[in-house]
Amino acid sequence: MNKIFSRLFVAACALPLFGCMVGPDFEKPEAEFLPEKWNTDVSGKNLTDGGESNRLTQEDLAQWWKVFGDETLTSLIDRALEANLDIMSARTKIAQSRANLGITQSGFFPTLDLNGSFSEGGKLNVSSGPSYGAGATAGWEIDIFGGTRRSIEASVASYRAALADKCATQISVAAEVADTYFKYRTLQQEIIITRSNLETQTKTYEVTLTRSKAGLAANLDAVRGAAQVQSTMAQIPSLEADLETTRHSLELLLGLPTGALKEELAEPKDLPELENFIPLGVPAELVRRRPDVMVAEYQYHSAFAGIGHAEADFYPKFNITGNISYQAPKIGDMFEKQYGTWSAGPSVSWNIFQAGKTVYNVELQEAVAEAAGIDWKSTVLTALKEVEDALITAAKERERIAYINLVVENNKKAYQYSFNYYKEGGLEFIDLLDAQRSMLSAEQSQIQSRQLFISHIISLYKALGGGWSLEDMKDDESKTRWLFFLSDGENRADNNNGEG
């Protein structure tokens, strides 16, 4: 009996090795439409050189936020990458995909069930005595046509997609934290600018009030001066409310309760001066490594493998089963030879007629795979669009900043001239008010434009797939040790696009 089981085991192991895998093999999609260079021209006078010195590497992209030189920002992002709830949710999806892969791969191996029993019976008035039983049943579906292996292939791709999806979530979280942080710093600066202008307007009002009492100016000027002061004061509560709600959003991104960052962010900081900085790189090197592109490719692979899994139902299924059982009147004699029976042998089943079910299932999987391929191409094209959008908006905002800086400078001079002329009686007060309003508006536009430029730079890094490293595509080795269909390199990204 042992010889028979051994021979059957060897045969079962050999059959899948010589068997085929039905269905088409997945081929990595090529994006021939990726351009050699960006369409947006960011070269020109006083602009950063777009040559090799400004070409991004994967290491640069992994922690792009360090380019801002803000330790507080770096600390916030580091904490968000650990405690953000969306990232934590993505980690649970990895665990789900890992477990699902384990369940799927178990179908490739034999099963063994043990059983035991006790019974007592006989005629209604006479007992025949107790009966003790024990046994084992083994079964193994031999994957000759590769249906199980295609199913495992699909699960492996889905598992890798979950790893890449976590990286994509990291990218979004890091970008959102940076954008929200600089919005918060901008609001702090807006409040400072508004209060500074309020002080200037208050001094103007006091001068107007003095001149009015001395009969050198009309009461109307004093009323207008008071209205201007009150109008500027009215802006501050709104800015303060925006400041608080922005901080609340930042706290939520870090998985913190409201108010947790109030003291840490209380001291205002200037925005970084990055008007002459736009990172560049080659689309084929940067866009293909975006985790969302990797997710789409893995999903395409998974759907493609589903075709072979469906086609395997056209072919017969081979199984090897074995059974051994003992039934004895005494528990001590249960494993004696005379009380034991055994059986072992192969079996085959073949679904000859299912009213087209298998045909339609293959057609369904083919359509699913085609849709996944379209989704992959759409994801790549969207990535290109996002990069081009970020490049053009950042480049044009940089031009706009240069003009706004001149507007601020000239408006400050205009106000000073207007104030001096007004004190000398050579200017109407309404003109002085216009100069004050223009100066405040210009300074607010200046800080907002700088924040908008920074936001475009953040969007560019996000569009280029910045915010993750190869380490982030690794799973916990202690949890993957039973995943026999993953090689050492298959649960991490390679240098180009994350394919194992």
What does this structure look like?
This protein is α+β, with helices and mostly antiparallel strands. The protein is built from eleven helices and four strands; from the N terminus they run H-H-H-H-E-E-H-H-H-H-E-E-H-H-H. It has helices spanning 2-18, 58-62, 71-83, 85-105, 147-213, 219-253, 283-286, 291-311, 357-423, 429-463, 477-480; strands spanning 111-122, 127-142, 317-328, 340-349. The protein has a four-stranded antiparallel β-sheet, with helices on one face. The longest helix has 67 residues, at 147-213.
Summarize the structure.
It contains 11 helices and 4 strands. By secondary structure, it is an alpha+beta fold.
Keywords:
single chain, 500 residues, alpha+beta, Outer membrane efflux proteins (OEP), 4-stranded antiparallel beta sheet, 4 strands, elongated, disordered C terminus
User: What is the count of DSSP helices, taking H or I runs of 4+ residues?
Assistant: 11
How much helix, percentage-wise, in residues? 55-70%
User: What would you give as the CATH superfamily?
Assistant: Outer membrane efflux proteins (OEP)
Mean pLDDT over the full residue set: 86
Shape: elongated
Assembly state (oligomeric): single chain
**What is the CATH topology assignment?**
Outer membrane efflux proteins (OEP)
Estimated share of beta-strand residues? 5-15%
Largest sheet: 4 strands, antiparallel
Top-tier CATH class = Mainly Alpha
Per CATH, which architecture? Up-down Bundle
Radius of gyration: 36 Å
Q: What string, H for helix and E for strand, traces the elements in order?
A: HHHHEEHHHHEEHHH
Distance between the termini: 44 Å
Number of strands: 4
- Pick out the low-confidence regions: 44-53, 488-500
Tally of discrete structural domains: 1
